[in-house]
Design goal:
Blueprint (H helix, E strand, L loop, with lengths): L1 E9 L2 E7 L9 H8 L9 E7 L6 E7 L4 E2 L3 H15 L5 E6 L2 E8 L2 E6 L3 E11 L2 E9 L3 E6 L8 H9 L10 E7 L4 E8 L4 E3 L3 H15 L5 E4 L5 E9 L2 E10 L1 E9 L3
Parallel strand pairs: 2-3, 4-6, 11-12, 13-15
Antiparallel strand pairs: 1-2, 1-18, 3-4, 4-5, 6-7, 7-8, 8-17, 9-10, 10-11, 12-13, 13-14, 15-16, 16-17
Helix pairs in contact: 2-4
Length: about 270
């Protein structure tokens, strides 16, 4: 199978993006994993597919992790998806909307950045003590489209992201689906740095949009950082998280940052 694709990156979180508006593509999990493989495929943290929208949405976004499994949402992927799909609506469109399993997403274009208005976070849980072989941690969690755990650390560079992230990701506290794990260091009065262990990728990634959003929300609530919270990710890019909060209810949650095309091409994909 010869497949045309676009390779994109959102702050270092990279994706294979496909136009499936005619719904002709029926890729298996193994084929998606092959596309995302960095040795035998294009190489990416995940795959995005553009499908036709319904009920007033411009498009539908399908997102798959690099293991071939479909996930509900991806924040950096949503920004890349919006940048890619914009041309199908209008090259000068100022905004667009698309549906995901986590709900409808609205995107607007601000210079070279894309800002997405995310669905309302759910399941805020603060200060849970969780033990793994590496120690006992105070873990804060929230679902920003997908589940995320947030842990504050004193030295982000010395934190063993994979060694701690892997058992936390599969801890019984987050059963049955598991969680993404974000290690956060407060860098200043309005900025944090975050490193993320992503489920589905099963490793650290250079950025995770829903993780950035979760970390920004938790940093505001637990550490009192003012809004918008600036978040520096592993790639060095800085994203901005903003929202409104009324008790445990969140509205107008936005994530703003870069979304860029790396290259386009064709690949021969095994059937």
């Amino acid at each position: 199978m010869k497949l045309s694709f676009t390779k994109m990156t959102g702050a270092g979180n990279d994706f294979v993006v496909l136009d499936n508006r005619d719904l002709a593509l029926k890729l298996s999990g193994a084929q998606i994993a092959r596309l995302c493989d960095r040795h035998f495929g294009v190489g990416a943290d995940g795959l995005l597919a553009v499908e036709p929208g319904v009920d007033g949405a411009d498009f539908r976004m399908r997102y798959y992790n690099s293991d071939g499994g479909e996930a509900e949402m991806c924040g950096n992927g949503a920004r890349c998806f919006a940048r890619y799909a914009r041309a199908f609506k209008s090259a000068t469109a100022s905004n667009l909307s698309f549906d995901t399993p986590a709900g409808r997403i609205h995107a607007r274009f601000v210079g070279n950045d894309v800002e997405v208005n995310l669905t309302a976070p759910q399941g805020l849980d603060l200060g849970r003590k969780i033990s793994i072989p590496g120690g006992t941690f105070e873990v804060h969690s929230v679902n920003t489209g997908v589940p995320h755990a947030v842990i504050f650390v004193d030295d982000l560079e010395k934190t063993p992201i994979v060694e701690w992230g892997r058992p936390l990701r599969r801890h019984e506290a987050f059963a049955p689906k598991g969680t993404n794990v974000n290690f956060v260091h407060v860098e200043g009065s309005q900025r944090i740095a975050v490193r993320t262990y992503e489920r589905g990728v099963e490793d650290e990634t250079l950025a995770c949009g829903t993780g950035v959003t979760a970390a920004g929300i938790i940093a505001h609530i637990v550490r009192g950082l003012p809004l918008p919270v600036e978040v520096r990710v592993r790639s060095g890019a800085v994203l901005a998280v903003n929202f409104k909060r009324d008790g445990s209810n969140f509205t107008d949650v936005t994530l703003r940052g870069p979304a860029e095309v790396c290259f386009t091409g064709e690949i021969e994909l095994p059937l």
